[in-house]
Description:
Layout: E1 3-16, E2 19-32, E3 36-40, H1 47-55, E4 62-71, E5 74-75, H2 81-87, E6 92-95, H3 99-102, H4 109-120, H5 125-138, H6 144-147, H7 157-169, E7 175-179, H8 187-204, E8 207-212, H9 215-218, E9 224-229, E10 232-238, H10 239-244, H11 249-256, E11 305-306, E12 312-313, H12 329-341
Parallel strand pairs: 3-8, 3-9, 6-7, 7-8
Antiparallel strand pairs: 1-2, 1-4, 4-5, 9-10, 10-12, 11-12
Helix pairs in contact: 4-5, 5-7
Amino acid sequence: MSNILEVKDLNISFDTYAGKVQAIRGVSFDLKKGETLAIVGESGSGKSVTSRSIMRLLSQNANIEKGQIVFDGKDLVQASEKEMQAIRGKRIAMIFQDPMTSLNPTMTIEKQISEPLKLHQKMNRAQSRKRTLQLLELVGLPEPEKRMKQYPHQFSGGQRQRIVIAIALACNPDILIADEPTTALDVTIQAQILELMKELQEKIDTSIIFITHDLGVVANVADRVAVMYAGKFVEMGTVDEVFYNPQHPYTWGLLASMPTLETATSLYAIPGTPPDLLDPPKGDAFAPRNEYAMKIDTELAPPMFKISKSHYAATWLLHEDAPAIDPPQEIKARQQLYMKKFAGRHNDGGEQ
């Protein structure tokens, strides 16, 4: 499967009164046609900044210091604003976190959905009206002919999010970026929106970048997962690899903090706080919060170690000279399940 997007060594900083915040520090990843890549991490880890940089929707005090964002053979870092306007909404679209602030309260739903159709597809009123009805039906909004004449305040939170998805899908984009699209919704509506996105992807073959702080949300929607911490990716792999055979202590902490049906006591919380990116630590940024940290973690940032042809993690625990450690009991149970699940599969390139 060919790559539709390649991000290479991306570094982004923000100028503030206190100094320069190094928000993104050497991020690299690719996105394949028709796949869903989930980017997971705590608030402030750099997830949204990474996604907004692809759309070139960063604030005025942001600086892309180095790196490339290659889409369809073109480096978007070097693209002009006019070129980006032709791409945004048409070839790369975004679903934002809060549907109420994404919609214009003074415009009908029909007008808001038809806007990108007229701008990018050059549709006339009759054509855009027909396409608007199709989109509202596609995202499962009942009585589309009646509801397209209504305003955002007349819809529930889940319905508004469906409308935002309809707007994002209006021009059949190659890439859909979903920035925590279910955060403001209750659990039942979350499940409906996630299922909707899965169904829509199968129908229109759009590649999706799914941004979330909750690993549990991505289990059934993503093909691959990238775990982010302090402006860097610390682990990348397929959903099965990251969920059932995690290798980075930060990923262990995220998984351990997920509630399950067996959770009877208080939830686990990763100790400490993320580092101050005004002055990033010299070594591994997670070291102060990592009970398995070694001396080298405070001196040198780890590279990405290869676990399999699709699974990588940036932790010195994977170095051949590192001492063997026992991960938390919950993680050991997951790893044993992984080994059983993949027993008998080919052992190529270090796959387990």
